[in-house]
């Protein structure tokens, strides 16, 4: 899932224009997601 420049495959996502999220394709074995909050600006 790359937001600032490429494609997004998540639903119900609300992001600011300043938000940048880069998530490489993870194998299903990972079973965990990385969530980053930049906080309020």
Explain this structure.
The protein has 41 residues and is largely without helices or strands. The chain has a domain at 1-27. Helix content is 0%, strand content 0%. It has no helix or strand. GO terms for molecular function: RNA binding. Keywords: RNA-binding. It comes from Paludifilum halophilum.
Concise structural overview:
The chain is low in regular secondary structure. The chain has no helices and no strands.
Indicate the topology.
Blueprint: no helix or strand
Key traits:
single chain, 41 residues, little secondary structure
Q: What percent of residues adopt helix (DSSP H or I)?
A: under 10%
Radius of gyration over alpha carbons?
A: 11 Å
Mean pLDDT, all residues: 63
Residue fraction in strands: under 5%
Which runs of at least 5 residues are low in confidence (pLDDT < 50)?
Answer: none
Largest sheet entry: none
Tell me the total number of β-strands. Answer: 0
CA-to-CA gap between the ends?
23 Å
Compute the number of helices: 0
Class of secondary structure makeup: little secondary structure
Query: What coarse outline follows from CA principal-axis ratios?
Result: globular
């Amino acid at each position: 899932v790359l937001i600032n420049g490429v494609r997004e495959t998540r639903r119900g996502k609300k992001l600011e224009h300043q938000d940048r999220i880069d998530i490489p394709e993870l194998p299903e074995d990972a079973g965990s997601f990385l969530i980053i909050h930049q906080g309020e600006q």
